[in-house]
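Below is how a single chain appears once it has passed through the pipeline. First comes the sequence as given, then the structure the pipeline wrote out for it. We keep one example in the README because the format questions we get most often are answered faster by looking than by reading.
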Amino acid sequence: MAKNDNPAAWYGRLDPNEKRTLWACFGGWTLNSLDFFIFTFALPAIVVALDMTHQQAGMITTWTLVASALGGWIAGILADRYGRVHVLQITILWFAVFGLLCAFVQEYWQLLTCRMLMGLGLGGEWAVGAVLLGEVIRAKDRGKAVGTMQSGWGIGWGIAALISIGILLKLRPDISWRVLLCIGLLPALLIFYIRRHIRDAEVFNETRKILRAQRRSVNFMDIFSPSLIKTTILMTLLAAGAQGGYYASAWFLEALRNTRKIAAMATGRYLAAVIIGSIIGYLVSAYLNDRIGRRPTFIGFAVCAAACIFALTLLAANDMSVLVLGFLLGLFASGTFSGLGPVMTENFPTALRATGQSFSYNAARLLAAGVPGLISWLSERSSFNRTIDLIAVAAYGLVVIVAFLIPETKGKVLSARV
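Resulting structure:
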């Protein structure tokens, strides 16, 4: 293998600012994931401690998702107006503080309020971080860098699992969940690093200079203008397909564990297989996005993810098949996400990039959130396996169709467009 073909060689080509930005955005997304999954692992203990119903627990999850979508769009608008680095710091501090406050709640409504407020920051961090990194990193390595940042979700998931297992087993149930949620303050420490070492990309600073010289300001509604409406719709549909497929696979694996009673699905090795598969998927897809292009990578991973769901409906009958197919599904379903940040960065103009990217990703998140309910509704009218297969084809088929419709932007150099 030639030196330039080495999958890790790209990191050595980065200058100090690119490396610092990569690690800051990677750290922010990893800590975002850590906070999200720690709450998920702590939720059964919280339900008991606060005497909540399962319906109330579900409402917390739903409204946190809605708040994160709203927060993501607001953060994107602010990032185009005031700068990516400033808003990134605010989003991290916001979800860290309200994450910590969740540890001190005494009843359901307090927890619901704190989680919704925390969700505003959670939704904003990815959009702003992905835009910042996409603008700072050179064109030929953008896919690998943003995809590597995306892998922080799997790493944060794994760290959260290890921490949760240790604390929940060693401490009393009535205080273990509070100790877990106190870990939510950790992201705030990242702000000191960002303030000292990270700056906005030159392409963004040049765009702001042009806008000031022309005495113009950006309007967030411009992403729906005739020149951008097609881009906004396509990016939203692309993200909706990836997230819809991911939600369907996660819901299906949970249902599979409850209905088929396969022993391996209740073990740490099964969780490890899915998490490791996810991390590998993010990184492999990130490399392929720059190697073979955005479009073929989206198509390949979407088709393989749908095939894995088909295989699970037919073949998941014993421990080994579930471990292998769970690993592969984690790999392909997660890997589909790696190209979203780069392709959105390359399709929206600099002046509206954060607004467009955050709206598309978070609007897609709300659309995809209806997938579990749709599966339940369709399952009452058809077989469970047929319903899952139908949803998988619809979601990942949408990714394939949109991938054919969008331009190939591999290696695109960003310009100070307004």
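The CA atoms of residues 148 and 295 lie 18 Å apart.

See the next section for the split statistics.
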